[in-house]
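Support request, please re-run this one:
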Amino acid sequence: MDQKTLQLIEYPRILDKLSGYAAFSASAEIALALKPSNQSEEVRRRLNFTRESRLLLSMNPDIRIGGVRDVRQAVEQASLHYTLSIDELVDIKDTLVAARKLQRPFFSKRSQVDDEPIVVNKAELREDAPELLFPHLVEIARHLTPPKGIIDRINQVIGEDKQVLDNASKKLAVLRGEIKVAHNRLMTKLQSMISDASITPMLQEAIITQRGGRYVIPLQAGFKGKVPAIIHDQSGSGQTLFVEPLAVVELNNTWQQLKLEERDEVRRILAELSAEIGEVHVQIRGIVESVAEIDFALMCAKYAEDLRAAEPEVLPWKPGKDNSHPGSVLRLIKARHPLLAKSTAVPVDILLEPPNYAMVITGPNTGGKTVTLKTAGLLVAMAQSGLHIPVQSGSSFTVFEDIYADIGDEQSIEQSLSTFSGHIKNMVHILDEAHQQTLVLLDELGSGTDPGEGAALAHAILISLTNRRIPCMVATHYPELKNFAYHTPGVVNAAMSFDLETLSPTYHLLIGLPGRSNALLIAERVGLSPRIIELARENISSEDRKADDMLEDIQYQKDQMREARTAAEEQLRKAEQLRAELQKRLDNAEQERIKILEQARKESQERVEKLQKEVRNLKRRMKRAVRYAEKAAEAALEASPEQKRAQREVLRQESLAEKVESTLDRIDEELSAPISRQEEVLPQVQTSQAPRPMQAGDLVMIRSLQKEGTLVSLDGSTAEVQLGPMRMKTSTRDLERAKKKPEIPPHMSAAVRMALAQEPAPSPEPVISVRVPSPGMELDLRGQRADDALDQLRGYLEQAYLSHLPFGRIIHGKGSGRLRDVVREALEQSTYVSQWEEADEKEGGSGVTIVKIKG
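Re-run finished. Output below.
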């Protein structure tokens, strides 16, 4: 990519922002070295990489790169037989431990020990396994396995206090034991001397201290020579001498000698450990770089989330017939400049797609033309670097081989160049290098010199670019370029809108409409003499005035339509909020109903159980009474009439009790049945549907202009429209059928009022409609994320149910099967689906699910 252009569109500032998310220096280096790619496959790979990272971050929001250091230089030195310091060795250990910990979320099954290579059998994996969800990241994570035994080896040598452990070697353990004994002997001897009654009066203090690594005692200078000793130092006042008594010199020497031997043994141990690390320096270096790559991926994901960014689609180049179009596409919907505050940045739709490949942007100064050019160039550069960009879903682009820009003041004192000369020098470079698969961005083309010559030069440059079919966006004030754009196929006018009431720009980009300078109107509003204003108007040709009136009327219409659309969108939003609130209340009422029924059922069950218990007790008493009567009759040989009546009455009561018990059991069974939830869903807020396909003679609306006219002819994706006294060509994507007459503003000129007296489309007003149109027999979810797919699936099922659709085909593709499982789980839980089944092989097999909608 052209480095000067990257500077002009402020691409380095994006890299600075990105590097701010780095966990350590190695990943920050990757971010700062990032460059856009001009290879489509590489750009797709990078965008997929960022998509995987965002999915990983959403599934593991707590994932962190902690404890990692850039130890590449240290291990490189170890490979050259340098001895590493304890701090460097600890950094290497911490890095390897952190890498091993980072590796775990990427694999569903690990090998027996953490420092063995991971072997994965994809046939044994579940479809939601990380190996299938994040294939690019998993491939990097494979290289995070630490060298076998290195972490344990460092732990065996260096302790938590960053000191070499006693058991690092047998010799070191012996030496430290001897050092302890020698130190105790030395301290015991010195302690006995400072406690000696004959020596204590000569001491400044009864303490033991060190000078030059040897233990000494503080002797008063006046007693010099009284104690046989070696003088090592004296105080600043000269009153104290720090002496080593001759009686401890040998003990001090022994202790010092052992310390030197300990130092040499520690150095040997560290050198041996450094050599082991040097043998695996390539692997450790690869681990650091792999951690940096994963951290960089997480940086891209975090930056995308903070920008509320979306992944644009990469499209192939499809040149037009007879070289009428280079095949480029730049479709950025609701694009925001990533360096502007999200709360203040005005989203713009940058649409440079067939049949157009060149755009001429006009409008007042400070109206946003330069920001629009920078936004287009910067978002393309970001996307080709693999970054998700602040646009709405559905944005797409073709990968440009290079971007060339001439933006801002090119004045150079060092090179003795004026502003104009600087621009021309840059233009020479651009015209030499640009071709059909590059994007050219030109700001204030032809400015900085005589207006007449500047306009002619700008016109010639634009002709050169369009003759060569070079995709470009040009910002200018020259009316000649507006006319050129109007009459040249493949070139479209665009304007930065301006609020005439507040005399301030709105920063909206209006494609298909040339801009106006508004100079006379602004001069009139700020108080310039009306006579001067009138004289100025007289110097403007009648054709220019008519064109200006037409532009003003179109601008007025567009502003009215935008306000109507904004109001409709706000009404739709409020209607959706109201629907959601009513649905919530409905759900709460249903929950309360179930709660009341459950309480009533519980109380009824308790009463039934009590009655059942009483009936059982009554049956037992009656059976005892029957047995007693039978025994009494046997004893009397023959029962009396009274006894017989009593027996019959007991039997009748027993039969009645059995019937009561049977009825209570049935009631108890009914009460035990679960209370079913009555699902009731409010209808979705719907907007009016588009009518039949357009044909010649139809009244149509040009969306970008919000202007109505008559469709004259259709030629593939290009339509010719009679717009009042004018005839223009536009894309069929920019047309819709008109439905009713618009309200024509009273201030319009008579000619324009006659031209506009045609049927325009009404502003979309939300209506709650129970009779819902069919959503179609198919829903294609391929290529979508699970959350987006589920939202679309729920809306489709609800609309299918309300429109009484009998069944539908859900196309989710085969792939890893993750999307299929999510879709089928949602179908199982849906209240609108009676059953579902997998399609036949001829109809798509496991990639398609047939659903039957409840009647």
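The chain has a mean pLDDT of 81. The longest strand covers residues 491-499.
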